[in-house]
Specification:
Elements lengths: L3 E2 L14 E2 L3 H23 L5 E2 L18 E5 L3 E6 L2 E2 L3 E2 L1 E2 L5 E2 L1 H13 L5 E6 L5 H13 L4 E6 L2
Parallel strand pairs: 3-11, 4-10, 10-11
Antiparallel strand pairs: 1-2, 4-5, 5-6, 5-7, 8-9
Length: 160
């Protein structure tokens, strides 16, 4: 009785034997679909990941100092404005505005980043000091803007 389940009655006493075949095909189908779904969604978790380090902590990679000219670039973010500081030079505050569609308008910030990259072409690090009241979507949009303007080393710290 391959594939069946014998419950040991053996047909004694005139009762019907309790032999039953369990159909495993629906279970296998369910597992195949579940595994396929998990594999496909694993790709999206890699794409949607932000690579951000915490400022003030130990560096992930210790590299020897090179003879490149860079500045300590800091962007203070509040719900109302952005304040960019390069070493001791503080730029004019940029008000946070939205366009007619409600999308965050960061064209002035992009212009400032381009000015800094012209002065310091080796600049790749920026620290974002964010206020607790700043919305998450605003922070993500600003991080994307930093990455899009050749500032891949983004650190985030609380304003204080």
């Amino acid at each position: 009785m391959a594939g069946g389940m014998d419950l040991g009655n053996g047909g004694k006493g005139g009762k019907k034997p309790l032999d039953m075949a369990v159909n495993l095909v629906p279970f296998i189908d369910l597992m195949a679909v579940t595994i396929s779904f998990l594999i496909m969604t694993a790709v999206w978790t890699q794409i949607g990941r932000l690579q951000v380090s915490q400022a003030g902590g130990p560096a992930a990679e210790e590299t020897p100092p090179e003879q490149t000219k860079t500045v300590s670039l800091t962007l203070a973010i509040t719900p109302e404005q952005l304040q960019l500081t390069a070493d001791q030079n503080t730029f004019e505050p940029i008000p946070i505005t939205r366009d007619a569609n409600g999308k965050l308008d960061l064209t002035k910030l992009t212009e400032r980043f381009k000015q800094i990259k012209e002065q310091f072409p080796d600049q790749s690090a920026i620290t974002l000091q964010t206020d607790d009241k700043v919305r998450y979507d605003v922070l993500v949009r600003i991080i994307d803007e930093c990455l899009g303007n050749a500032l891949p080393q983004v650190s985030v710290m609380a304003a204080g």
